[in-house]
Amino acid sequence: MSRTAIPFVDESPAAMTRPVPSDVAFTPAVKAVQAARGSREGYARMEARGGWRTEIDDGLAAFIAEQQSCFLGTASADGQPYIQHRGGPPGFLRVLDARTIAFADLRGNRQYISTGNLSENPRVHLFLIDYAHRRRIKIWGTAQVITGDAALAAAVAPSRPIRRPGADAVTDPGADAAIEQIIVIHVEAWDSNCPQHIPQLLPAEAVAAALAARDAKIAALEAELRQLRSGASPESTGSLADVTAET
């Protein structure tokens, strides 16, 4: 896989002094609650083994490539959190290298809350969830907003055009949503979760395909049954009532 490296390292004091990657989430306050409620010992053993992973391995890269949706968490300088949903065709989230993920940020409602937050606080959380297989991944890191980079925009552009909500591609030549900027995320740590409490939801297109295959099978069986009925003689097959009685 061809990847474009985006050199970016979080050199904040907090990042430089973390003994283990999971400290990005397990702050002293969190560890105090874990200790009070009995889970600190188990997580301490995990930390002794190195803690959470910091690089995108092949398994995570494949999982990211399958996603059609994600949630991006940011916060203002004074700590007010915000969650933004982003979606697109599989592959809209691009792994650029073992520590970098990027996606094309398309023009939307122009509130720019995430962009404003990132201008004063680069900390981000990327939450990925696969409802069909009940899997979820949590990614911590920092992010940059990139504009004016045509090569990067081309590298992370969605594989197919994404329509603006309510836009008609026939009557509106600008129906495809425009790439306004690129969000580049430098991964600091990531972890996976168990499937507990994740409802199993299936993509509409997958359900439609399954129903179409079922309907086609039913239609084929009905056609075969009509052919058998039209070509069968009573002496060789008996009446439908006889068949029903026998079964």
Secondary structure elements and their pairing?
Layout (H helix, E strand, L loop, with lengths): L12 H4 L11 H10 L2 H9 L9 H9 L2 E7 L5 E7 L5 E5 L2 E7 L6 H8 L2 E8 L4 E12 L3 H7 L22 E15 L10 H28 L2 H4 L2 H7 L1
Antiparallel strand pairs: 1-2, 1-5, 3-4, 4-7, 5-6, 6-7
Describe this structure in words.
The protein is α+β, with helices and mostly antiparallel strands. Helix content is 35%, strand content 25%. The chain has two domains: 52-193, Pnp Oxidase, Chain A (Roll), CATH 2.30.110; 204-246. It has nine helices and seven strands. Strand 5 (123-130) and strand 6 form a beta hairpin.
The strands making up the biggest β-sheet line up spatially as 2-1-5-6-7-4-3
- On the 0 to 100 scale, the average pLDDT is 84
**Uncertain ranges:** 1-9, 169-175
Distance between the termini: 58 Å
In terms of structural class, how would the helical and strand content be classed?
A: alpha+beta
Give the overall silhouette. extended
What integer value in Å does the Rg equal? 26 Å
Count of discrete domains: 2
Strand content: 15-25%
> For the report, how would you describe the main beta sheet?
7 strands, antiparallel
The CATH top-level class label of the largest domain = Mainly Beta
The helix-strand sequence is: HHHHEEEEHEEHEHHH
Q: Please give the count of helices.
A: 9
- Look up the CATH topology of the largest domain: Pnp Oxidase, Chain A
Q: Do you know the CATH architecture of the largest domain?
A: Roll
Under CATH, the homologous superfamily of the largest domain reads Electron Transport, Fmn-binding Protein, Chain A
Count all strands and give the number. 7
Query: Portion of residues in helices?
Result: 25-40%
